[in-house]
Specification:
Elements: H1 2-12, H2 14-20, H3 25-29, H4 33-54, H5 59-79, H6 84-92, H7 94-110
Length: 113
């Protein structure tokens, strides 16, 4: 997921990058930046859904994925105007995605003990 969040972070510095000629992912993606981030977020959730199904994980895992999806939605909402401060908040919010998935997985695996 680092590539996705590098783009959120690049959106913070977009104006400075343009001034000095740096070709960041936010500049390269242009107005498609949020759409591409959303697409990558959806692909990650789909991959984790397939893993959970394949491993027959239970309800806590699915709750974790739902919370992660909610975090992704919140990040998209925060960055919707592409304001640097809001994009930085979206970037910082990513640890909640990992935490939701991790806690859901741990709780689900602990129910088998």
């Amino acid at each position: 997921m680092a590539g996705i969040y590098d783009t959120f972070y690049a959106m913070v510095d977009r104006a400075d990058d343009q001034k000095i000629g740096v070709r960041s992912s936010a500049i390269a993606f242009g107005d498609l930046d949020l759409l591409l981030i959303g697409g990558m977020q959806a692909l990650m959730l789909f991959a984790l859904l397939l893993v959970g199904r394949s491993l027959e994980l239970g309800p806590w895992y699915w709750v974790g994925l739902l919370l992660a999806a909610g975090c992704f939605g919140w990040q998209q909402y925060l960055a919707r105007e592409r304001e640097p401060a809001a994009c930085f908040k979206a970037f910082l919010n990513n640890h909640y995605v990992g935490m939701a998935i991790f806690v859901g997985l741990v709780l689900d695996l602990s129910r088998h003990r």
